[in-house]
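Checklist before submission:
- one chain only
- standard amino acids only
- sequence pasted in full

Submission:
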Amino acid sequence: MTRQNTASEATEPPTRRQDTADPYPRTVTSGGVVLAGGRSSRMGTSKAALEWHGSTLLRRTVGILTRATGGPVVVVRASGQDLPGLPPGTIVVDDLREGKGPVQGIAAGLAALRGQAETAFVASTDLPFLHPAFVSRVLTALDAPREGPGQSPDEAEANDVALPVARGYQQPLAAAYRTSLAELAERLVKEDRLRPGFLFAECAVTRLDDAALLADPVLAARDPDLDSLLNVNTPEDYAAARQRPAPEVTVRLFGALVKAVTEAGRAAGPRSVRAATVGAAAEAIGLPFARHVIAALNADEINADEINAGQITHDPSVPLAAGDTVFFMPAMPPP
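Returned file contents:
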């Protein structure tokens, strides 16, 4: 969708979806915001379009947030910025105030999600190792009640921000926010109070150090070094990150695919492979990922009521993360 606005409507910037359908007709609990409009002066080129195991950094980050939240994902770009390909349903928002820093981008992203999601995980585009378990851990902390001294659970206040303070730094671009903070963030930008600290000073913040983050057993198992927070700022950072192997995932086959693989003389049991996308996982086992095949992510950890577009897919570019299990199965024929 496309909407025009004026400068006085800065909390409601022009938006458009990557397709015409609205996959989120009702308000959901969580969504995602990816800030893609930074100047990338140290990198020398747009970080959003940097290649990442056959995809791009931006496509991967959007896909990870889609998987982790199950809700809409907003990409905030500089006005007129060209973006690489994005999944259908991604909301693209123009940042109308160039050079105002991350609080402006946060304001634009949260405003675009109002009425669609109550909370949002906000990420920069340059987090190539962001893990869905990290996103889930931070969003869970946002919803945990804040109990003050002598308060009962019924009297506890809600958090406005869940802010990781890990690797020695606050991480405002790997944090969770209530979308209702959009107006506060916009006011701070108009007052030229551009540092995230000004935002945190005016709302209820729960801070998560390394130990608090890793208290989640899934995150501790799948991202024990909190590599989710490693970003790439320079060509050297990017080269070092790109030299790391793709995440280790498990691939399993079901139904007629088992017979097909067995007849071809290949083992049909679970296999551990290195793959950054669903398509790469299929290629690693010699499986053509055609229209007659679908993939389900971590299907042993979900139930039918919780399956969303980030977990069952025909899209080979859907990103994978360490510890994932990819189930390939024949697609159901149309009724």
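Reviewer check: The chain is about 25% helix and 20% strand.
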